[in-house]
Amino acid sequence: MDETLHFDAIVVGSGITGGWAAKELTEAGLKVLLLERGRKIEHQVDYETELKAPWDMPFRGEGDADLYAREYAVQSLNRHFTEFTQGHFVNDAQNPYQTGADTAFTWFRSYQLGGRSLTWGRQCYRWSDYDFGANKRDGHGTDWPIRYADLAPWYDKVEDFIGVAGAAEGLPQLPDGRFLPPFALNVVEQAARERIMANWPERRLTIGRTANLTAEKEGHGPCQSRSICARGCSYGAYFSTQSSTLPAAQATGNLTLVTDAAVEHVDYDPATRRITGVRWVDSKTKARHQATARLVFLNAGAFNSVHLLLNSASEAMPNGLANSSGVLGTHIMDHANTLSAAAIMPGFEAWTTFGNRPTGVVIPRYRNMETMDGIGHTRGFSFQGGALQSTWTAGKRAAGIGKDYKNSLEKPGPWRMVLVAFADCVPRATNRLTLDRTRVDSNGIPQLRIDFAFGAEENAALAQAKADATEMLTKAGGHVMFGFDRPGPGGTAIHEMGGARMGHDPATSVLNKWSQAHDVANLFVTDGAQMASSACQNPSLTYMALTARAAAHAVALLKSGAL
Amino acid sequence: MSGWNRRAFLGAATLVALQAAVAGGGAVLGKLDPRDAPSPRRRKLMREVAEHVIPTTGTPGAGVVGAGDFVLVALAHGLSGTRKPPAADPSFAPHLRPDGSLDHAAWLEVRLGAKWLALPPARRHEALAALDAAAYKGEPAAAPWRAIKGLILTGYYTSEIGGSKELNYELVPGRFDPKVPVTPETRAYSSDWTAVDFG
């Protein structure tokens, strides 16, 4: 690939939003180059551990702790990281990043075709106007230039395509979507739902809304309740690039896919004030390549899209591409995340379950809506979690050896219930990404530096979340064992976002309401980097809806001759 | 088929799988750094210790299925945090590696005493039960036992016999049933990954 290639559009990154951009742009008739920095993983063919049992694995699914300490020190902290899934996460030693002296940030990454769409938690929640209006209401950050009505039809479109199982609840703070049949609550969760609602009518425990198919969908089998999604699913029963958007994009005949292509620079022409194309390094051969296009979509993942913009500084834009505002890299966020309460749930010993449900439950936000009833915070928090039974691993905490001990571990153990809080993270200028010019990666590109800390708002929200969770599980009949009121390190929620926020004003934001750079009309950033606030819902569904919306706008501009 | 019969049948029918499981453990053992490669005596000790923790009942026990070798591999690779420096205790000093971690297997061998393997089974069991009780009462000098016992459990319940004969294993349940009555025949599923990870 020595000559310069020409396309209508280039999409950088093949994860959740990159796949969507490629699908929407190719379906509109554009010739699209999709660049992915990681290796190719082919649907079904390359899901190497999908059918393995623990006894087929060298370390029985636990993995080689010695290797993880050396090369996966961050990734191995991810709850979806196991010996079965380690190939779907980056090698930290080979992909370093820097953090400020006072920063603890676990940046979970997947550099491969499909990106984190292979390993994501699949939770799909619409945002509401409590979320899009949050910055305007309390003054943190800058106002979103869009509201729920702008995004609602795009949520519809995305849900129709990916398939989201969920239960309609009619809650204004968590708008219902176009759902496939929901997974069922287990007996403990069902009782907890009723008991919590009896005490607090505004608190609605409901089943998690998940991108797992509860019914057959063209070309996909239904979910088999294995709950090993992050290994890859040959049934195509959860949404991933491989199972959903990539085949759609490829079916148009308009897609060129290049893997092992780490984009290092987006080229800007000051004469036309347009992007001309991108340059990349072949991760295997280290050869340099380039391509030109009329449009560029950045979908490298929030922090990597910002990294690329910062690294694409030029004489005309010395502080980074599309950074005339100076806010590029600032106001990054991640949900403040902690286990608020864990309880023993007596009274359900007669019941167990069959199969592995690929989702937990959710208690949507109920604070700071019509009444500002948050203590020390102005935003929302929600809970995810569920009721589960213990098993043989609980034997590690119990005294005993011998026959009786063995027999004590043969049945499903006592029921427990956990509530994990996700609190809105307010945008702060001091939480930011910069380039560390003293350290380069294996391609010679300055490493990303993360400075991040939670503040009084998040700590106050998690304190209230712990108190609330304790009360709810107690009223639900549980005996609370423990809980926490301090967040895990930044990145724990794996909802890192912001850095190229959307806004009305080019002086204080990077993108306009179409996810389009204020400074450069043919540049779109439609992953998590565009977020101006964090809400407390899992953000991927919103990223997808924003991507589809931006793609339609870009195509319209292109066809009208405006680009 | 009643529970007893089902399990007795499975216990007799698993010899072939059992051979494969033990061979698998041995294969990984062969890849260890020479400094961590266990002596035949230490392999025998860990096998017997594992069998005392999870003995053969209607299904084979942990020693029989090769959990002892798994523990030795796991300890060499630091599973369950075993390559992190232990809490300070004078009795650990002779068993510390250059990196400050505790050689759990060497510690156990000394802690149980040179004659443990030669004791009659009941006495062996007694000595191990005493160590277990001390460790779970929080006695610092017995603390390393908890990691060893935990790895014996891992070695057993992630073996084919422990995972699919002692417990049930279903990789493809095909459905989620939220309300199933517990009966005397009910067995936990080793493929309930949420329970394994968070229970």
UniProtKB/TrEMBL annotation, chain A:
<dbReference type="InterPro" id="IPR036188">
    <property type="entry name" value="FAD/NAD-bd_sf"/>
</dbReference>
<keyword id="KW-0285">Flavoprotein</keyword>
<protein>
    <submittedName>
        <fullName>GMC family oxidoreductase</fullName>
    </submittedName>
</protein>
<dbReference type="GO" id="GO:0016614">
    <property type="term" value="F:oxidoreductase activity, acting on CH-OH group of donors"/>
</dbReference>
<feature type="domain" description="Glucose-methanol-choline oxidoreductase N-terminal">
    <location>
        <begin position="9"/>
        <end position="335"/>
    </location>
</feature>
<dbReference type="GO" id="GO:0050660">
    <property type="term" value="F:flavin adenine dinucleotide binding"/>
</dbReference>
<comment type="similarity">
    <text>Belongs to the GMC oxidoreductase family.</text>
</comment>
<dbReference type="Pfam" id="PF05199">
    <property type="entry name" value="GMC_oxred_C"/>
</dbReference>
<dbReference type="InterPro" id="IPR051473">
    <property type="entry name" value="P2Ox-like"/>
</dbReference>
<keyword id="KW-0274">FAD</keyword>
<feature type="domain" description="Glucose-methanol-choline oxidoreductase C-terminal">
    <location>
        <begin position="427"/>
        <end position="546"/>
    </location>
</feature>
<keyword id="KW-0560">Oxidoreductase</keyword>
<dbReference type="InterPro" id="IPR007867">
    <property type="entry name" value="GMC_OxRtase_C"/>
</dbReference>
<dbReference type="Pfam" id="PF00732">
    <property type="entry name" value="GMC_oxred_N"/>
</dbReference>
<dbReference type="InterPro" id="IPR000172">
    <property type="entry name" value="GMC_OxRdtase_N"/>
</dbReference>
TrEMBL record, chain B:
<dbReference type="InterPro" id="IPR006311">
    <property type="entry name" value="TAT_signal"/>
</dbReference>
<feature type="signal peptide">
    <location>
        <begin position="1"/>
        <end position="23"/>
    </location>
</feature>
<dbReference type="Pfam" id="PF13618">
    <property type="entry name" value="Gluconate_2-dh3"/>
</dbReference>
<keyword id="KW-0732">Signal</keyword>
<protein>
    <submittedName>
        <fullName>Twin-arginine translocation pathway signal protein</fullName>
    </submittedName>
</protein>
<dbReference type="InterPro" id="IPR027056">
    <property type="entry name" value="Gluconate_2DH_su3"/>
</dbReference>
